[in-house]
Amino acid sequence: MNRTGAPTAPRPVSWGRLLGAELRWVLRRPRTWLMLVLLTAVPVLMAIGIVLSDRPRRSLLAEVTGNGLTLPVVALSILLTLLLPLVVAVAAADAIAGESQHGTLRGLLLAPVGRVRLVAMKSVGVLVVAALAVGLVTVAGLAAGWLMIGPPAVLGADGALLTMSGTTLSPSGALYRIVLVAAWTLVQLAAVGAVALAVSAWTEHPLVVLSSVLGGLILFGVLTSIPALEPLHPWLITTGWGAAADVLRDPVPAGELVRSTLVAAGYLAVGGAVLMVRMVRRDA
Amino acid sequence: MTSGSRVRRGGIAAALAAALALALTVGFVTARASAAPDLPPVPPEELVASVLEAEPAALAGTVAVDNRLGLPAIPGVPAEGFTDGTSTARVWSDGEGRGRLALPRPDGERTYVRDGTVTWAYDSADRTATRIPAREHDRSGPAEGDPQAAAREIVGKLRDTSTVDVDGTTEVAGRPAYTLVLAPQPGERTVLREVRAAVDAETRTPLELTVLGAGPEPVLRIGFDDVTFGPQDPALFTFTPPPGVTVEDKKFEDKGLKDKGNADKGTGPDAAAPGRGHDPDRGGADALRTVGDGWDAVVVGTVPQGRGPQATGPQATGPQATDPQTTDPETSDQRGADRPDLSALGTPVSGPWGTGREITTNAGSALVTDDGRFAAGAVGTDVLGAALQQ
After folding, report:
1. Fewer CB within 10 Å: C terminus or N terminus of chain A?
2. Where are the transmembrane segments (chain A) (predicted)?
3. Which pLDDT tens digit goes with each residue over A125-174?
């Protein structure tokens, strides 16, 4: 390639090639697909359950009865508590700790690829899995909600969604709320992913990543239930996760959605910084 | 990669983390610190007068209620918004009598819309909309007449039993505010320490009410967490019941609600107002009278229908323990049929006044005797016992 023939440093690999390789690697794993298919099935199962049963009380699921377009919001809100973080944690565990365990990380670390690029590539891989999971749940929820439950039939063509405040939303208004909650969920998952990748960079056992992410979430749940620790609660990422239901209120209370997004940004920054420091300093 | 660039990148990441930690700390500290703003001093009479004179403001905001009253949970009554805890509400007002109130729950919402002629209550849990007609005698009191004179009268009356002061300034929801402080005179035998009200310096809208008892933490705080003044979207103040929603009409002869409203007020220092607690509509059986005045005013009465708590078990009730919010039309219609069981509340006591049960909270206490009398007030049970004997 070098026309002058003089020895030079190896040419950096292009971003596109790197990302393509990583995505092929991530998406070719059967477990990724299996998890995504199972996640997609959840909103469909919820729709079947709601069609077959009476309206539940004291549950967000009650909103879905006869009001199908709320299904993607409710499904995302329920899956965010454990299953969506689990999918992200599996992807993050495979990304660094898994490769380290198989010895394939060494090749990547020795390759003529900057460490920052390597981290970016791994992060994009995890983010794509998170986006796929959120997108599939949303689309499956929309489809199942629309086809199996349908919008409130009595509302006519103008109304597609009955909010918890007793107002009706047009189809475009409903779609806007659904996209809003999907984007918000993705930000929360990105924060979980950043922390999971940071853990993943410190260990060569994928199980450690899984157990620390899930254990962390369970621990946060326990801490939330202790009233004496109230000053700590705003700093826990799980505290803000109830805000998903806020998009079903009218007007949308932005406060908690914004606050939880900022908290997630904090986790993202800390996780990203730890990940970067570890990967840059790491010996091959 | 050279070791130089490796160190540099590590340094950048470390600097990023340090900057983030600093930003978080600064944000935390500035959120906590609320310096007292500089405002021209104002005497209490003028402050009260300006509150009475103030035009109702158009606003939107979030109100938080921190409840540490220590009210007992009543079996069979929903604990929501009543037992200790923090709850928030979103409020909108157009300043002309129309308003909207939303009480969010994690799994739903209760919405009240007042559109000028009727009030709608919508509950997402059972998807019902309730139409509540407006009360005719809603607008009364100091709104008519000279606010300055009314304020002088109110403050003068309060001064008999309390010290009334403007205790500097504070900041509520980012707005500078005056703090009006009511504290009992030394002779008052109350369990309350003081009542503080924060009044917005610009619009003279009350922004926060704090009730302090014996402990350092307020027993009750109702105040804006955030508020913006200004015109609101008129669409917020209309409500059309969505198709498919059950619409109910609420009949407006809720005597039970009135009883409870009065009893509730009896626990506050404003029970001193003469005539309070006497309702001409009410039969002799559950007539209330006030013993004492000021902070140690005690409401004394008979449990409705003259039945004692132990004699009738689940039917007995004492108005002091039920919250106005928890009263719904069904329970007041079938009086006595579905009453919550109060006989398990409190602890048994006896005294020169007889035997009964005492219920103590952080803001007062109540005595229900076995022969069906009760006394309640923002005082200790010794004062209640003395009042029962009068």
Report:
1. N
2. 33-53, 73-97, 124-149, 174-200, 207-229, 257-277
3. 999 999 999 999 999 999 999 888 877 665 555 678 889 998 888 888 99
Give the integer Cα–Cα distance in Å for B172 and A22.
52
A81 is written with which tokens? 């508590």
- What pLDDT score does A63 carry? 86
3-state secondary structure B140-155: CHHHCCCHHHHHHHHH
Residue B107 has its nearest CB partner, among A58, A154, A246, at A58
Residues of chain A with Cβ-Cβ distance to B1 below 8 Å are 114-115
Contact between A237 and A220 under an 8 Å Cβ cutoff? The reply is yes
Structural domains in chain B plus CATH codes: 44-237 (2.50.20.10), 255-389 (no CATH)
Cα B16 → chain centroid: 46
Check residue B42 and report its DSSP letter: -
Alpha-carbon distances of B195 from B69, B177, B192, rounded to whole Å: 14, 15, 8
Residue B25 · residue A139 · CB < 8 Å: no
Contact A154 B125 (CB under 8 A): no
Q: Does A139 touch chain B (CB under 8 A)?
A: no
Count other Cβ atoms within 10 Å, centred on residue A49.
12
Pairing of strands B194-200, B206-212: antiparallel
Domain borders along chain A are: 15-281
For B220-246, b where at least 16 C-beta lie within 10 A, e where not — what string? bbbbbeebebeebeeebbebebbeebe
Considering only the beta carbons, identify the residue of A166, A253, A273 that sits closest to B242. Answer: A166
Torsion angle in degrees (nearest 10) through CA of A243, A245, A251, A253: -10
Separation CA A207–CA B54 (nearest Å): 64
Q: pLDDT tens, B295-307?
A: 888 888 887 654 4
Q: What are the CA-CA distances from residue B37 to residues A156, B40, B172, B191 (Å)? A: 54, 10, 11, 31
Give the number of other Cβ atoms within 10 Å of residue A253's Cβ: 17
Dig out the tokens for A277 from the structure: 């420091």
CB B91 within 8 A of CB B63: yes
Of B39, B349, B5, the closest CA to residue B180 belongs to B39
Helix axes A83-92, A71-79, angle to 10 degrees: 60
- DSSP H helical ranges for chain B: 3-32, 44-53, 147-159, 255-265, 309-312, 329-333, 381-389
pLDDT 10s digits, A230-242: 889 999 999 999 9
A-chain residues within 8 Å CB-CB of B109? 164-165, 249
DSSP state of B97: S
Cβ-contact A206, A94 below 8 angstroms: yes
Query: Is the CB of residue A89 less than 8 Å from the CB of residue A196?
Result: yes
Which parts of B161-286 fold into alpha helices (H)? Answer: 255-265
A154 touches chain B (CB under 8 A): yes
Amino acid letter for position A5: G
| DSSP H helices in A145-205 | 171-202
Q: What's the complex ipTM?
A: 0.82
